[in-house]
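Dear H.,

Thanks for agreeing to be a second pair of eyes. The structure we're designing against is below in token form, covering all 440 positions.
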């Protein structure tokens, strides 16, 4: 699962005691209202078409998105983009769909959630709007009806462990087996628990390979299988599930964005963080000049990385309007994706966006970009994001419960098996771009 700020209205200033200032204020306010009415009127008359877009980017990411992607589109096509950024976009979208007022476009991290909307006929197929060959099958997955309903605008790599510059290989390997040396924060508002699901997914992928991982992500491998259960217990051992009460309590109460703060403290606290590529932009990792190692090598001593877990922010179309289709084509274009990648807000996996040797001017950024685009590697989408929403949410809740009470694991897995067997759930046919041999 991938990561997600609200905006308070500005308070009005105090009224002036002098009549001329008050008069000018009233006049200015009237002019503002007239100007706003003119804008609304122009849009109502169709002279400035508008397309609505809901996504999870706020703060600096939203500014980067507006400047690099949205503003060039508005200038070129004279179409206004009414953008709404929310860290609870799934809940906002669900409420809008139920009310019959969904946005024209939406960006979600979960293909499993989008597949459910497609099954309910809320999404418009992207045939003729997006070239499938521009994106791999793990990114733009055809559903059972043969249509593609989404594509990635932003991608991230997850099978990595971050550490501060200057920390040597021996020190890293010693830290791996010490739960206190792991930076872990499970908090994420309504989606709390997903950092734990990322751990479990990646351990399963690295230990048993893409075929086992894909079977589980499709609902074909039971949660109580030895492979899946083994991934849970391995994670529990690494991070000290059910152990030191202070350590567990801190992990449960810490937001994922704050988990890395101890790496930049004096004296330094935790040393390693298993987290997606987007975490490198957090202030603590910037101050620590964060470096990364493939999780397969650090956790299991693998000579070569077998496969990579990935995630993405996926664009889907809900209204088949001319302006919405123009925005879809723009967001799927190499130019738009290249422009945003240059801001280091994420990575593009568009076939026409080749990462250079010094992509975006950062060694770490260019290196990760090349891994995401490596045609020799296997890329598997975040399994929980690919699962039906009910299963995804239960998985995240179970990760929280297991961290506090690992003795409850059998009951948690039994419950997940029961839920996964519910009739009517929508499972993706594929989550990996290709298969590879299992473990040696």
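And this is the sequence the design step returned. I haven't edited it by hand at all.
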């Amino acid at each position: 699962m991938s990561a997600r700020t609200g905006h308070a209205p500005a308070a009005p200033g105090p009224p002036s005691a002098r009549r001329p200032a008050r008069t000018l204020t009233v006049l200015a306010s009237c002019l503002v209202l007239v100007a706003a009415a003119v804008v609304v009127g122009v849009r109502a008359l169709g002279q400035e078409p508008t397309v609505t877009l809901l996504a999870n980017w706020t703060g600096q990411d939203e500014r980067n998105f507006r400047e690099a992607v949205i503003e060039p589109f508005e200038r070129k096509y004279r179409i206004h983009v009414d953008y709404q950024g929310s860290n609870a976009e799934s809940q906002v979208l669900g409420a809008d769909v139920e009310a019959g007022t969904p946005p024209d476009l939406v960006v979600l991290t979960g293909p499993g959630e989008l597949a459910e909307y497609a099954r309910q006929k809320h999404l418009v197929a992207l045939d003729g709007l997006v070239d499938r060959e521009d994106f791999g099958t793990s990114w733009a997955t055809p559903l059972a009806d043969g249509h593609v309903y989404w594509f990635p605008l932003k991608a991230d790599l997850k099978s990595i462990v971050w550490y501060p510059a200057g920390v040597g290989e021996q020190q890293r390997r010693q830290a791996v087996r010490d739960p206190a040396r792991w930076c872990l924060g499970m908090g994420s508002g309504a989606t709390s628990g997903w950092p734990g699901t990322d751990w479990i997914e990646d351990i399963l992928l690295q230990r048993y390979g893409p075929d086992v991982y894909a079977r589980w992500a499709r609902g074909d491998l039971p949660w109580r299988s030895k492979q899946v259960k083994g991934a849970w217990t391995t994670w529990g051992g690494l991070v000290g599930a059910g152990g030191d009460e202070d350590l567990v309590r801190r992990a449960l109460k810490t937001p994922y964005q704050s988990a890395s703060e101890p790496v930049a403290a004096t004296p330094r606290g935790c040393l390693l963080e298993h987290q997606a590529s987007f975490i490198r932009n957090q202030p603590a990792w910037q101050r620590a000049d964060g470096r990364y190692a493939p999780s397969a090598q650090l956790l299991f001593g693998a000579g070569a990385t077998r496969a990579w877990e990935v995630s993405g922010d996926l664009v889907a179309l809900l209204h088949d309007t001319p302006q919405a289709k123009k925005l879809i084509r723009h967001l799927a274009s190499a130019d738009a994706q290249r422009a945003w990648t240059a801001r280091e807000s994420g990575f593009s996996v568009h076939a026409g966006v080749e990462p250079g040797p010094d992509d975006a001017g950062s060694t770490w950024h260019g290196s990760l970009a090349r891994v995401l685009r490596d045609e020799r590697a296997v890329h598997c989408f975040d399994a929980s994001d690919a699962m039906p929403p009910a299963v995804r949410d239960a998985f995240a809740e179970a990760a929280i419960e297991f961290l506090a009470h690992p003795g409850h694991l059998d009951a948690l897995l039994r419950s997940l098996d029961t839920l996964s067997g519910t009739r009517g759930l929508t499972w993706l046919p594929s989550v990996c771009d290709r298969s590879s041999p299992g473990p040696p």
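Two observations from my side: Confidence is low (pLDDT under 50) at residues 4-46. The longest strand covers residues 308-317.

Warmly,
E.
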